[in-house]
# Entry
Amino acid sequence: MEGSHSLYTVVPQHYISLKPGNLSHIESAALPYAALTFLSAVKMYTKCKGPITNQRVLVNGGAGGVGTFAIQYLKAMGCEVTVCVSETGYEVVKGLNPNYILDYKAKEFERELRQLAGFDVVFDLAGDETALKYVKPTGWFLAANSPLLKAADDWGLVCGSVQSSYMLTSKVTQALYNHGVHYSWIFFTPSAASLEEIKLLVEGNKIRPVIDETFAFDKMSEAYAKVGKMRGRGKVVVDMEKFGELCVD
# Structure
């Protein structure tokens, strides 16, 4: 499942689910990775604090794949949602109807964010821990910028894991000591049950995929180049049925 692209693969049954009936395969492909990454964080929060319904939530970096899903999911759960984006992501996020949209490049950003302080939970998808001080005591700060994969590449699996564990322990301790806030990283976690939940929300018109651009298979390098710029507005999808010049009999 990791590090490759193929028309077919073999996975455990408890990893998969039928796609939503009201979406195409291309639209459906835009959902699982982003949605399951976010829902792993929701499950962590729910296990420790209870249902995420009707909470005050900040999504930092809301215009990407995980962010656009998060906004819609949280709104479906009755949450008050504040989103931080750049000016270029404003229109995409506006169409998802969050309660507040803040431009993190604007001069008045800090003042506006301070006025909204006291969040129950912050989902940091941008790698910026500024909002830690705006979480209410006993609240949660859940960050998607885990260094685990890079550390494993740089130091090897064992040493990289130890290095990452030390870093996480340090961040957890500092967040709790300085702000009274619980800190954790979030990771993609495959789950058929979560996919079923997503399916019901999509078929109930509570969530829709946000697609930035779709590439044919033979344009894979262009797709990766676009993702590498970290300026996506929703998800980048590769259409595996469009082989273009790579098609052979």
Notes: Residues 157-179 form the longest helix (23 residues). The chain has nine helices and eight strands. The chain has a mean pLDDT of 84.
